[in-house]
Amino acid sequence: MTERRALLGAGAAHLLLFAALSIGWQMQQKPLDLADELVPIEFVDIADVARVAEKPKPSMEAAPQESSAPEPAPKPAEAKPAEPAPPTPKDAVPPPEPKPEPKPEPPKKSQAKPADAKPLDMSSLSNLIDKALPKAKTKPLDTSKLATSIEAATPKAATIDPRTAATLKEAIRAQIFLCWNPPIGGADVREMTVVLRADYAKDGTIIGLPKLVSQSGATAGNADYARVFADTARRAMLKCSPIKLPPKLYDFWKTIELNFDPRTLT
What we know:
- This protein is an alpha+beta fold.
- About 35% of the residues lie in helices and about 10% in strands.
- The chain has a domain at about 120-265: Fusion Protein Consisting Of Minor Coat Protein, Glycine Rich Linker, Tola, And A His Tag, Chain: A, Domain 2 (2-Layer Sandwich), CATH 3.30.1150.10.
């Protein structure tokens, strides 16, 4: 500020000096004419001069250089607002407090459970019965002589007399009963019988399996025994095949229906 004031004061002094010299030079040229107009001289206050400051001369060094405008910085990616956490329900039930572990009770004596009854294996039962029971004592029958006598007594016609039919039936029963071992049961099965039917070829070989015709003495209480009884009779017909019978009488024995009665074996 002091230097600025000094400059302003020096400028004002120069103005005063210049004005004084101008007036003196005019007075020397011609006498002072009071009639002439007086040149008004204004006195400038130093404070006002300070406002008119000389502008500094432009400098080449200080001349601003045009610079390319800086590229605008890329805008940062807008961050997605975080999803608000789900509000805690007001009526949320607090977790139950853990209950104290119950004291272990003394082990109770386990009661033995009855074993489950297994289904009866009829095939095994039949095999056991066949092995355990003694074979029925029967006298062997000479079937060759019986067949010869039947053939000799049979007339040439297609019919057969009752005596010959009975003899033929006895020959069939005698051969098949040699292979039969009926099972032994209680008093309620002693009178049990079974009737089977089977077809035979001309050479005496059985065709297919024997079929059950009827059975007596079977009840709900002895149903398993009755089934085994019929199976033993069926196996006897299969085991004794082929049977020896007169081929000329084939029409009378090609289908045989035989009654299995254990009482006839004794």
